[in-house]
Amino acid sequence: MALTNDTNGGHLRVPLPAWLKTTFLTLGSIAVTLLGLLFITFIIGRVMPIDPVLAIVGERASQETYDAVYHQLGLDKPLLVQFLYYLWDVLHLDFGTSLLNARPVSEDIARVFPATMELATLGIIIGVVIGVPLGVLAAVRKGSWIDQVARVLALVGYSMPIFWLGLMGLLVFYGILGWVGGPGRVGIFYIDVVPQVTGMILIDAAIDGNWDVFKDAFSHIILPASLLGYYSLAYISRMTRSFMLEQLSAEYITTARVKGMSEWNVVWKHAFKNIRVQLITVIALSYAGLLEGSVLTEIIFSWPGIGSYITTALLSADMNAVLGGTVVVGLIFILLNIFSDLLYKVFDPRAK
Predict the structure, then answer these.
(1) Engineering a disulfide at 205: which of 53, 214, 296, 332 sits with its beta carbon 3.0 to 4.6 angstroms away?
(2) What is the model's pTM?
(3) How far apart are CA 123 and CA 221, in angstroms?
(4) Which residue in 175, 204, 162, 146 sits closest to 293, CA to CA?
C-alpha cells in the first residue's frame, strides 16, 4: 500500500485498495438502485386511481371514519414525509397489511414466493440444459438442418403466447393423454401432507422421505416448468448461437484448427470458454424474467406463486400487496445482477 504526499496540507494519504473501492462503488450503486425502485413504487401507489382509504372502509363509511383512517395512514402528511415513512417500513420488511386477508404482506410474500422460485428454477434448468448445447450445435452446424430446427424452435418460443401453450398443454398432456397432473401444486389428497421446511414442495417431500407426494408434485410441476423452460430456451439458444458464431469466426479459432486441434477442443475449450461470461448475464436475466414474468403460467395452472398473488391483489385494489410484490421482484433483479458480477470474477480473471 503506497503513501502519497498531500501538497496542500502536507499530510500523508493512504489510498484505498482497489477491492475496497470496488466494494464501495457496488454498495453505492445497489443503494441508489434500491432507492430509485422504492421511489417509483411509492409514486405508483400515489398516482393509481384507487383510494386506499375507500378500499379499507368501503364506500358507505361515514366521513368521520374516512378522516380517521386517512390520518392513520399518514396521507395527510407531505409527500416527502410519507416517502420517508414508506422507506423506513420497507427497510424493516414491513409492506403493510393485505386488504384481502388482513395479514401482513411480508408474510404472504414469504408464503407464496417459494412456489414461484421452485417453478422458475426448474424452468431455467430445463432452458439451460437444452438451450446452451442446442445453441452451440446450431452455431457449429450453421446452415444445416440442425441450425434451421434450432432457429424455428426459438422463433416459435418467441411468437407463441405462453397462455395458449399452457392451455394446449393442459388439454393434450393432462386432459387427453393423462401424462401429467392437473392445475395446482399437488393433488387434493396430498395437500399439507408434508411439513413445510423450504416452501418448495419437491424439496420438502424429499426431506420428509414421502416419495408419493414427491411423485405427485413432480407430475404437477413438470408441464408448467417445461413451458417456462421452453420460453427461456428460445432466448438462451438464440443468444448462445450468436455468441458462438462470433467466436468461431475469430482468428484464434482458425489458428487452433490449423494446428490440428480436435473440433471438440476448439468448440468447448476455446470458443465456448470465451462466451461463458456473456452467457451468465443471459441466464441471470432469463431466470429473473421467469421469477417475475410467470404470471400467466401461474394463473393457468392455478399455481400459488407471487405472480398470481400480485395479479389477484391488483384486481382487488390491494395496493399494499401489489407494491410489496413489486419491491420483491425488483430486489430479485438487483440480487441476480450482483450474483452475475461475482460469477464474472470466477470465470474471467480479468474481472478481478
Answers:
(1) 214
(2) 0.81
(3) 10
(4) 162
